[in-house]
């Protein structure tokens, strides 16, 4: 692994609080890894330790085989992009990008070429002579990114890089950032509390909670095979049901819990349900939320709330209406094991279970 983290822990003595507990994982060269978790999960503290802005209480880490403890922060080859951009107000975009190169005493011709290239790469060529207060939030973040990678860092760290931007700009920059990092081949770690941001952007996700790693995997693995109930609830939108009676599944003895994604729930009105109803379950419509192309339907399933997605082109539903539902797939949590199951329709094969580490 290009970045290797080994049993890192961190305790703040003044607060008497442990914020990291025995963190270990690796990051492959050229990949984009997300540290995902709620506020207070320790993800920013971990990033600051790697950058040399904090010191670990225990454990070690290395970048490209070299222990970070043996290298001063300024010599670790790290580029850092902050949530608040941290651009120098009285320097132009060009001067901000050139700043790190000048502090490394690079030749003037090299600085000019590098800054010119980065201005073009980040789409800021026409804004080179503007000051930060003359830029939009998205333009500021592009400038901060260009400044961070200008000195050719080994790795790039980004701390909540899109948090200060509105939703549309965040979505645009996610795609832009992922493409650019892969184009440059720079190993990157970014911190976020937004599961959609992590799923859309990262090659791998490290889910953290209360200073511990809960699960590590690709976005697909994290979304489809959550290792514990925390991950099941935190990643994406899902319903968590307690010991439900459901047709079509080989469920364990009670008590147990299940996670159901709304896209895995089909709704049938009485006039349009399949002839084979053995695998259907009865529910009652509690609410219908129009979202444009889709609707979110809140269902009452024997006193528990279940969410379902439904096309706006399908027949409308009425609050209080009784419907039949087909849950295609769910995850069962019982005794430390998550079991990914499909409804046992004749044409389907059950998916394999997987053990929670």
Automatic annotation (TrEMBL):
<dbReference type="InterPro" id="IPR013611">
    <property type="entry name" value="Transp-assoc_OB_typ2"/>
</dbReference>
<dbReference type="InterPro" id="IPR027417">
    <property type="entry name" value="P-loop_NTPase"/>
</dbReference>
<dbReference type="InterPro" id="IPR003439">
    <property type="entry name" value="ABC_transporter-like_ATP-bd"/>
</dbReference>
<protein>
    <submittedName>
        <fullName>ABC transporter ATP-binding protein</fullName>
    </submittedName>
</protein>
<keyword id="KW-1278">Translocase</keyword>
<keyword id="KW-0547">Nucleotide-binding</keyword>
<dbReference type="Pfam" id="PF08402">
    <property type="entry name" value="TOBE_2"/>
</dbReference>
<dbReference type="InterPro" id="IPR008995">
    <property type="entry name" value="Mo/tungstate-bd_C_term_dom"/>
</dbReference>
<dbReference type="InterPro" id="IPR003593">
    <property type="entry name" value="AAA+_ATPase"/>
</dbReference>
<dbReference type="InterPro" id="IPR050093">
    <property type="entry name" value="ABC_SmlMolc_Importer"/>
</dbReference>
<dbReference type="InterPro" id="IPR017871">
    <property type="entry name" value="ABC_transporter-like_CS"/>
</dbReference>
<dbReference type="Pfam" id="PF00005">
    <property type="entry name" value="ABC_tran"/>
</dbReference>
<feature type="domain" description="ABC transporter">
    <location>
        <begin position="3"/>
        <end position="235"/>
    </location>
</feature>
<keyword id="KW-0067">ATP-binding</keyword>
<keyword id="KW-0813">Transport</keyword>
<dbReference type="GO" id="GO:0005524">
    <property type="term" value="F:ATP binding"/>
</dbReference>
